[in-house]
Automatic annotation (TrEMBL):
Signal peptide: 1-25
Alphabetical keyword list: Hydrolase, Lipid degradation, Lipid metabolism, Signal
Name of the protein in question: GDSL esterase/lipase
InterPro entries with a match to the protein in the record: GDSL, GDSL_Est/Lipase, SGNH_hydro_sf, SGNH_plant_lipase-like
Gene Ontology MF, one: hydrolase activity, acting on ester bonds
GO BP term (any one): lipid catabolic process
Family matches, as Gene3D superfamilies: SGNH hydrolase
Protein family: Belongs to the 'GDSL' lipolytic enzyme family.
Length: 438
C-alpha cells in the first residue's frame, strides 16, 4: 500500500509539472504583444549596469529618472523613458526588465528581456575604461543563458517558437566611435583607417548576428547610427559650435555598410528578416527643425554639461526648467520627449515592414505589470564580483599593445590582423578627446 501511495504521489507530481509547463508555454506564445529582446548601450540600458559593482558607466543618481514613474533614478541614462520603453508600450507590452535584475528561475525569462549595458559596443575593446560593462558578445551569451532557462521551463520546441517569433532590437555602434575610434588614446583609431574600421565592424556584426540567428533570432531590427557629430559632446569640439561633418560622414558610411550587410545575411540565412532602423534621419530632423516637434533647443543639453567631464547630469548640475523643450538631456543622450518622437518613427517603420500593428489607445504609457521582486543590488565587492547570471567573472584586461585584448567569455569578436600604423592626418586631423560617453 505504501508503494502504491508513493507511486500515486509521483504520478500526480509529474502531471502537475506537465500542466504547469504547458500553461507557461501557452502564456509565452499567446501574450497580448510580441516578446521583445533588447541589446544595446546606454541609450537602451534600463538598469543592468547598476548590478556591475565596478562599472563607472552608471546613472543611479539624481537627476536621472526625474520624469520616470516615481521620479527616481532607475539606471536609464535619461530623464524618463528609453526608446525601447516607449516602443514596448506601442506593442502593448511592459518594458523588458534588465537581465541582471532577474533570477533564471523567474517566469519573467519567458517574456522580453533587456540586455543593454551603458558603455557597451560592438567591439569587445570598446568601453575599456568603464571597467565593467556587458559588450554585445556578453549580451548574446546572456541571451543564450536566458533561452536555456526557457527550455527548462517550457521545453525546447516551445522555447524555439517564442524566440523565432520575437523581435530583436539592437542599438549598438555609437560607443565604437565616440569611446573608441575617435579617442586618440585608443588603438583602433591609430591602427585603422576609417574604411578598415568599418570593415572590421561589419565582420564583427556578421559573426554576432549569425550567432543570434543560430540561437533562434529571425526578426532583427538593427538601429543605425544617429548623426554623432551633432550630439552636444561633439559640437563643443567645433570652433563654431556646429555639427562635426566628418563624424556625421562616418555614421553615414557605417549605416550604408550595415544595410548591405543585413541584406546579405537575409539572403544567406533561411527565414532571416533583418532590417536597418533609420535613426539618423529622424534625429537629424529633430536637430535641424526642433520647433516642428515642439522643441526649442537641439544644440545643447538640458543639464548644460556639454563640456563637463563625463557629460552626465550629476546631482550638482543645473537642470533646465522645461525638459520637454530640449532634444538632448545630457551631452550624449536624448530626452524623454525626443525619445517619444524617435520611437514613433522607428515603430512606423516596423508597421510598414509588417512586424508591428498600428498602436491602439494610449501607446505612450507602459502597461502596468506585477513582476517578481528584482535581484537585490550588490553592496560591497568581494575580491572581484562575478557578472550576475553567469558562471564567469568579468575581469579587467591588460593595457593594449597593438590591439587590446578581447573582453568577455564566449566572444565572437576576434582580433584582426593589424595594418601598419598610419599618421592620424591620413583621414583628417586628430579630434580633441570629448568626455567619455556611457
Amino acid at each position: 500500500m505504501a508503494a502504491l501511495g508513493a507511486t500515486a504521489v509521483a504520478i500526480a507530481m509529474l502531471l502537475l509539472a506537465t500542466i504547469t509547463n504547458v500553461a507557461l508555454a501557452t502564456t509565452a506564445t499567446t501574450a497580448k504583444g510580441p516578446v521583445i529582446y533588447i541589446f544595446g548601450d546606454s541609450m537602451s540600458d534600463v538598469g543592468n549596469n547598476n548590478y556591475l559593482l565596478l562599472s563607472i558607466a552608471k546613472c543611479d543618481y539624481p537627476w536621472y529618472g526625474i520624469d520616470y514613474e516615481g521620479g527616481y533614478p532607475t539606471g536609464r541614462f535619461t530623464n524618463g523613458r528609453t526608446i525601447g520603453d516607449i516602443m514596448a508600450a506601442k506593442f502593448g507590452v511592459p518594458p523588458p526588465p534588465a537581465f541582471l535584475s532577474l533570477y533564471m528561475t523567474d517566469d519573467e525569462v519567458l517574456g522580453g528581456v533587456n540586455f543593454a549595458s551603458g558603455g557597451a559596443g560592438l567591439l569587445n575593446e570598446t568601453g575599456i575604461y568603464f571597467v565593467e560593462y556587458l559588450s554585445f558578445d556578453n549580451q548574446i551569451s546572456y541571451f543564450e543563458q536566458t533561452k536555456n532557462a526557457m527550455i527548462s521551463k517550457i521545453g525546447k520546441k516551445a522555447a524555439e517558437e517564442v524566440v523565432n517569433g520575437a523581435i530583436f532590437q539592437i542599438g549598438l555602434g555609437s560607443n565604437d566611435y565616440v569611446n573608441n575610434f575617435l579617442r586618440p588614446f585608443m588603438a583602433d583609431g591609430i591602427v585603422y583607417t576609417h574604411d578598415e574600421f568599418v570593415a572590421y565592424l561589419m565582420d564583427t556584426i556578421a559573426q554576432q548576428l549569425t550567432r543570434l540567428y543560430h540561437l533562434g533570432a529571425r526578426k532583427v531590427w538593427f538601429t543605425g547610427l544617429a548623426p554623432l557629430g551633432c550630439i552636444p559632446s561633439q559640437r563643443v569640439l567645433s570652433e563654431t559650435g556646429e555639427c562635426l561633418e566628418e563624424v556625421n560622414g562616418y555614421a553615414v558610411r557605417f549605416n550604408a555598410a550595415a544595410k548591405d550587410l543585413l541584406a546579405g545575411l537575409n539572403a544567406k540565412l533561411p527565414g532571416a528578416r533583418m532590417s536597418l532602423a533609420d535613426c539618423y534621419s529622424v534625429v537629424m530632423e529633430l536637430i535641424e527643425h526642433p520647433q516642428k516637434y515642439g522643441f526649442t533647443t537641439s544644440h545643447t543639453s538640458c543639464c548644460d554639461v556639454d563640456t563637463s567631464v563625463g557629460g552626465l547630469c550629476l546631482p550638482t548640475a543645473s537642470v533646465c526648467e522645461d525638459r520637454k523643450e530640449f532634444v538632448f538631456w545630457d551631452a550624449y543622450h536624448t530626452s524623454d520627449a525626443a525619445n517619444q518622437v524617435i520611437a514613433a518613427h522607428l515603430y512606423a517603420d516596423m508597421v510598414s515592414a509588417g512586424d508591428a500593428q498600428e498602436p491602439q489607445g494610449n501607446a505612450t504609457a507602459a502597461p502596468k505589470v506585477v513582476r517578481s521582486p528584482p535581484r537585490p543590488l550588490p553592496r560591497a565587492p568581494a575580491s572581484r564580483p562575478a557578472v550576475r547570471g553567469s558562471n564567469t567573472t568579468s575581469t579587467p584586461r591588460a593595457a593594449p599593445a597593438s590591439r587590446p585584448a578581447v573582453r568577455g567569455s564566449n566572444t565572437t569578436s576576434a582580433p584582426r590582423a593589424a595594418p601598419a600604423a598610419r599618421p592620424r592626418d591620413a583621414v583628417g586631423s586628430p579630434l580633441a578627446a570629448p568626455p567619455p560617453r556611457a
